[in-house]
Amino acid sequence: MLIAQLTDTHVVGPNTDEELYVDNNGRVVEAIDSINRESPAVSVVLATGDLTQWGAPEEFVELSRFTAKLRPPILPLVGNHDNRDGIRGCFPSVPWVDAEHASWVAEIEHVRVIGLDSTRPGESGAEFDHDREMWLRSILDQRHDGPTVLTMHHPPFVTGIGWMDRAGFIGLERFVAVLSETKVVDRIQCGHLHRPMSSVVGGVLAEVGLATTVHVALDVGPDGPVQVIRDPVGYRLLRITGRSIVGHTRYIGIGEEPFSPHWSLKES
Question: CA 208 to CA 118: how far, in whole Å?
Fold first, then answer.
């Protein structure tokens, strides 16, 4: 099966005059069209937060209009640019947990997918508190014979990009302890950083997906400035066979199509 990860789309309202540096909405449409063309077909799309620019009602209307064109079902997460009420209202069919945090769990074919709300309302940083710990432990304690993919907006590691890391992750040690003790999560897919990166957290590979919007510039110096860059954009694909999970990146908008190089063509 294939799982697509779409992240940090930052959909805006139709009449915005904000400087975005790229066409946020146009790239969402382009990514959705590409996901719909994937072969084999994508089983589910994980949308890992910051799906809107500021969580405004008109932005959620636009987001709903775009995602309605997706052929596979979508499982969204709230990001620090969204809000919980807005995301729940935009996607009412998602199995949201009956709690203050907007988390969920779903089973797609043989894969258990957990959506963990990592947001701290009104702030850009992350939080993993007691309530979310108890909920996550209760899910991970349930027997499941297939792989488990955990999705969240904020990456649970220090990235080295100082101006992004400064927002912090309250309860990070608590989160790492849950992973280390339960030992049932196979992969973590995150957003927030707008550029691909990875780390091992509590023995689990954690990946940040490729944003469809402008990227955070890569500068791991101790006092790097706030900078963005128009790197190639796209989305992640997870190919899952049994318990094997292999990640791929699909670039969009690069103006290139696959072609056969001369050395692959056999002479007749």
Answer: 14
Nearest CA to 71 out of 48, 40, 111, 101 is that of: 40
SS3 88: helix
CA distance 230 to 216: 9
The answer to whether 209 and 198 are in contact (CB under 8 A) is: no
- CA pair distance 207, 213, nearest whole angstrom: 18
Asked if 152 contacts 48 with a C-beta cutoff of 8 angstroms, the reply is yes
How far is it, in rounded angstroms, from Cα 178 to Cα 192?
A: 22
Domains and CATH numbers, the chain: 2-255 (3.60.21.10)
DSSP of 108-141: ETTEEEEEE--B-TTSSSEE--HHHHHHHHHHHT
Cα distance between residue 33 and residue 38, in whole Å: 9
The CA R_g of the chain, rounded to the nearest whole Å, is 18
Please work out, in degrees rounded to the nearest 5, the angle formed at the alpha carbon of residue 77 by the alpha carbons of 93 and 105: 60
Can you give the pLDDT at residue 88?
Answer: 98
The predicted model gives 131-151 an average pLDDT of 97
Q: How far is 106 from 123, CA to CA, in rounded Å? A: 27
Give the confidence band of 145 by pLDDT, cuts at 50, 70, 90: very high
Calpha distance 236→99 (Å, rounded) = 29
Q: Which pTM was predicted?
A: 0.95
Give, in degrees to the nearest 5, the angle at Cα 27 between 113 and 49.
Answer: 35
Whether the Cβ atoms of residue 94 and residue 122 lie closer than 8 Å to each other:
no
Q: What span, in angstroms and rounded, lies between the C-alpha atoms of 93 and 102?
A: 13
* Burial 152-185, CB ≥16 within 10 A → b, else e: bbbbbbebebbebeeeebebbeebbebbeebebb
